[in-house]
């Protein structure tokens, strides 16, 4: 008998029919003798509907009240699933975030979990109940309702699994696991049986959004066994996320190709190559609450240097205006930008023990005449920025070059 | 400076536009220097939508989970109104029933308020906030969400006014007060400036549903000054509900004509006129959870008697079947019924000190050849059951006979 936490996303509870299907899946696990805690998102579309309603009233909406509003989305689905489980003859009980007491800080709309009081859940589990918990929400020390931000239901699931010392946390989504890359671009893309925590983190942060990053970090910190599964398939073991490299039985050098077309590039040309110039440029950007991803500073000639960085594409125009406004002050010759770029990354823990990975990547892209505009590396990934129009081609040739279509 | 509790029903918060109008009305009271607590219902239609959703999943739905589900309706409106108030530059804060801590018993879907912890509200009011409270909901001693049943938002408003010792509890509805009768039937019907608590109770229980009965009882018990107003009119003082007869400045003998076409009549003919026969007939009816309203037993001849009572029209067929099933056992000659009846009542505290009211009522109906099938009286009302087809005529002639179109 195991204790399993199962998290179902918005598409898995999008209708009465789907909610009944989730109930049947839960019933199967109960029949096998397991204890089950279910974490739910709101019905897909509901959170956006509520946010729009809020903006119709006040724009931007007060964040405390926005949390009161949007937290109703999960409250609806937990009640309906508890009913569906009872309709199947199971014992079930729903809990809002406040009812569990998922204690968070008071950073409304992006709160962080501080503590989970799991005592009530444990006694209800021992009494044979399926526990159905509202994801994405908590409560601060003063009893104000908080939410964890987009994708926060994954975090709720992992945090509950950690608090209850669950045997496994299963994340049910509309994909049946983590793939070597997006199958819509590379039909040969293959589901990974296992992926390490660090690889998953890189894949998630690079746009392969199967899991919310914070939930993966949380799982890593508390060593929660995390599995990604499809809620639309009867069978399948999904992808297990492991925390030891040795657990990765496939031992591929490269696990996957991630990509991201949400970024834009800003280049500040001809600034004086003096100490503190990076701060002079990026300080005001940070002050304007603009997140910077990749940063490159070329060694300059004539005491001048070029400085390039990427921001989210939504911030492109604002960043460009900001820097042009201070061009004279920092002594730059010109500020230019490009929002038609894409970032492609190869990810794999095998990189640590293998050489020649980067050169293989660059050679593969060169063979297709794809120009590399920026490069950034970490211990387990190499990212390049290229012209957006070459994105699909780059992903396809890299997938093939590293033999990802073949099981290791 | 006064402390005012204002309750707005579902039609008053049915859209973003309406919610903004409520915010503007609240702002006016704030500008006059008053402290304001607002109690809201769900958007009209929302509670029914949620109940239907529940029945699609489980029928009948588990009541604990139904309360978790439907309580989201008010949680949405309180958040939106708090935003709208902030958008007008006011300080505002929403509270769910659980956040106030409106403690109830655990009778899900029809819970009763046991206690209200008003300390937080009071300090938030003193800090200049408009307090926006979700009506209709509370929490039991174990933290389970409860609801007070249909119309329960009125009760929340009155209970909060009692707990906070508010100067006035204003109930905003789609009518601008309590009328001498339904203006759709009698165009001359007149809004009452005041009505006594007892008259209001009789009017409400007889179908003039301006306020939920329990809220009026509650107001009476705690001597809350209750005023019914229209949320769709800019001006108007509505109807004040008073608790002392002397407060009723209008001093009319009859305050209004109430009516009800929701009942049906059952007659058990020729039962033995022996002690206990009423219990033999009504015991099984009560056991079947059927509410009985009027009861009449005629003096019998030949040791026989006829027994007549009324039930809700929805229970007519079931009651008839129930009694016909036990006809032989109770020794009745026949069980007959009629669901085409209506109850018309004249209500007024002036009846206590005036004679001839009943005979005036009967004479007025006789003059129109309206046959009276049943009569029941209390200290401040006289009700008659008549053929449904005469309902409008009866209400019109009684309204005129008692001079209700003229201000007292």
Automatic annotation (TrEMBL), chains A, B:
Pathway: Amino-acid biosynthesis; L-lysine biosynthesis via DAP pathway; (S)-tetrahydrodipicolinate from L-aspartate: step 1/4; Amino-acid biosynthesis; L-threonine biosynthesis; L-threonine from L-aspartate: step 1/5; Amino-acid biosynthesis; L-methionine biosynthesis via de novo pathway; L-homoserine from L-aspartate: step 1/3. Substrate binds at residues 47, 74. InterPro entries: AceGlu_kinase-like_sf, ACT-like_dom_sf, ACT_Aspartokinase, ACT_dom, AKii-LysC-BS, Asp/Glu/Uridylate_kinase, Asp_kin_monofn, Asp_kinase. Gene3D superfamilies: Acetylglutamate kinase-like, VC0802-like. It is an enzyme of class 2 (transferase). ATP binds at residues 7-10, 173-174, 179, 184, 209-210. It catalyses: L-aspartate + ATP = 4-phospho-L-aspartate + ADP. GO terms for biological process: homoserine biosynthetic process; lysine biosynthetic process via diaminopimelate; threonine biosynthetic process. One of its GO terms (cellular component) is cytosol. It holds the Pfam family ACT_9. Keywords: Amino-acid biosynthesis, ATP-binding, Kinase, Lysine biosynthesis, Nucleotide-binding, Transferase. PROSITE patterns: ACT, ASPARTOKINASE. It comes from the Bacteria. Its EC number is 2.7.2.4. Residues 266-340, 346-408 form the ACT domain. Coiled coil: none annotated. The keyword Oxidoreductase does not apply. Belongs to the aspartokinase family. This is Aspartokinase.
């Amino acid at each position: 008998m195991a204790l399993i936490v199962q998290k179902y996303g918005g598409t898995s509870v999008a209708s009465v029919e789907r909610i009944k299907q989730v109930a049947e899946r839960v019933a199967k696990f109960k029949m096998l003798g397991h204890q089950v805690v279910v974490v739910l998102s709101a019905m897909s579309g509901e959170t956006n509907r509520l946010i729009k309603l809020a903006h119709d009233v006040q724009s931007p909406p007060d964040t405390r009240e926005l949390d009161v509003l949007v937290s109703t989305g999960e409250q609806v689905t937990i009640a309906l699933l508890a009913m569906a489980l009872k309709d199947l003859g199971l014992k079930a009980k729903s809990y809002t975030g406040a009812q569990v007491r998922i204690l968070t800080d008071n950073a409304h709309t992006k709160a962080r979990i501080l503590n989970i009081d799991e005592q009530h859940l444990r006694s209800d589990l021992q009494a044979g109940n399926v526990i159905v918990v509202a994801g994405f929400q908590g409560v601060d020390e003063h009893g104000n309702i908080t939410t964890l931000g987009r994708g926060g239901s994954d975090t709720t699931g992992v945090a509950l699994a950690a608090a209850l010392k669950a045997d496994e946390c299963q994340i049910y989504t509309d994909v049946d696991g983590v793939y070597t890359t997006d199958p819509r671009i590379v039909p040969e893309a293959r589901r990974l049986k296992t992926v390490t925590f660090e690889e998953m983190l890189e894949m998630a942060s690079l746009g392969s959004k199967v899991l919310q990053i914070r939930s993966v970090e949380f799982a890593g910190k508390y060593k929660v066994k995390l599995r990604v599964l499809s809620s639309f398939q009867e069978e399948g073991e999904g992808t297990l996320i492991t925390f030891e490299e040795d657990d990765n039985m496939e031992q591929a050098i490269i696990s996957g190709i991630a990509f991201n077309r949400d970024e834009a590039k800003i280049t500040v040309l001809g600034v004086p190559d003096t100490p503190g110039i990076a701060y002079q440029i990026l300080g005001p950007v940070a002050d304007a609450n603009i997140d910077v991803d990749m940063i490159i500073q070329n060694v300059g000639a004539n005491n001048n240097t070029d400085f390039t960085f990427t921001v989210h594409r939504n911030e492109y125009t604002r960043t460009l205006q900001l820097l042009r406004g201070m061009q004279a002050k920092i002594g730059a010759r010109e500020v230019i930008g490009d929002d038609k770029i894409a970032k492609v990354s190869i990810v794999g823990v095998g990189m640590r023990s293998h050489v020649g990975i980067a050169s293989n990547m660059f050679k593969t892209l060169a063979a297709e005449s794809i120009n590399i505009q920026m490069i950034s590396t970490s211990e387990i990934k190499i990212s390049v920025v290229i012209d957006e129009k070459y994105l699909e081609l780059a992903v396809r040739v890299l997938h093939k070059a590293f033999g990802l279509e073949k099981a290791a």
